[in-house]
Amino acid sequence: MREKLIYILGAIAAVLLARNLYSIFMQLPDEASQGMIYRIIFFHVPAAITAMLCAAVTCITSAAYLLTRNLKYDAISVAVTEVGLAFLAANLVTGSIWGRIIWGIWWTWDARLTSALVCWLLYAGYLMLRRAIEEPTARARISAVFNIFAFADVPIVIFSIKWWRTQHPQPVFWGGGSIDPAMYLTAVLNLVALVLLAVVLSLIRLRQEEVQREIDSIRRYAHAV
Amino acid sequence: MDFLRQTLVIARKDLRAELRTKEAINAALAFSIVILVLFSFAFDPGEQETVDMSGGLLWIVYAFAGTLVLNRSFAREVPNDCLDALVAAPISGGALFLGKALANFVLVIAVELVSLPVFGIFYNVHWTGHIWSLLLVLALGTWGLTVIGTIFSALTVNIRLRELMAPLLVYPMLIPALMSAMKLTMDLIAGKPLGGEDEVWLRLLVAFDVIFTALSLVLLETVLIG
What we know:
The complex is a heterodimer of chains A (225) and B (226).
Chain A: H1 2-27, H2 41-68, H3 71-102, H4 111-131, H5 136-163, H6 181-224
Helix pairs in contact in A: 1-6, 2-3, 2-5, 2-6, 3-4, 3-6, 4-5
Chain B: H1 2-21, H2 23-42, H3 48-52, H4 54-75, H5 82-88, H6 93-123, H7 131-155, H8 162-189, H9 199-224
């Protein structure tokens, strides 16, 4: 069942991505002031939103683990965190490339860039913390608590642009900016495509995690016998 | 009422244990002075620029020296199985956390209050202009540092590579609090009073303290007992 879901969602994501890439590179015109580099926004913004969704999902599954003590939620947390971290890295890298062209620098210590990087470090810390704990239930418990702490940091990322003066452009989408309907449609479709991709990757990673746990338990059983 | 009494018992116990050995507090004091000396090589101490950013330097010193005290907070209970006794004691996890956090707060702020004048002398910084506002920022920033340091000390108490993991997790988590404390301290040292544009930073610092204190109070039992 889950196998089929992976293939179906993967196929939808692939079709959507192909459609969007065609639209981004062949149909949509260059932006008036930025030229062709603006196209990176179609990946930059959806990647950030996907990463935030992943963070929200792992916070919920971590809390669910603490409430139910079902190790399934722990497996989902680690799978989704790894995928979300990859999307946040994609967001940081695309932003950096854009900044090199438009600002002339790869990086600036602007509030929003800094917050995104801090979030990346936090969730990387989550994965490192997991590696330092051997015992499965202690690992699940302690990393779930850490995950909730990390997620408490995420609202600061979202609101930072409103609180602090910033060099980062004001949001084009849903932030009072104006955008051509065709560009808006492609951006939304690309968000859908990237979220689907994240779901597919998380499911694959989840299966790896489950297989790994099964191997571990068989190994423990063999030792016991 | 019981909660308050239990909290104070834990805090008093921790302070007494620390004041008898003075291990952590001496190390933290010496360390903060070593960093202050090291900074004088990294930045020209005579330059106006160094004075302008001294608020930031000061908080880096506090964050580094503070973790020396904080990391040991739960680790020191492991020998002689004191941690098991604390967990078995008929007090709530919240009281245990708050007591330890209070004791740590007193120790860290003591280190800070000693190194602040030293810093002023070394770097020719006039920090007494807005002394009460500065003390308020110091207290709020230190409480944030203490809360995160104490709960992460509990989180990492039983894991491998404890000394390596704790700072790795603590500093990124602390960044919002450190950021606002640095900004406020820099402005206060430059002679600007609190309020106006700085108010958002002050609010952020208070929000950070409140959110993480609440989370820690709720989650400490989960961390220690399971």
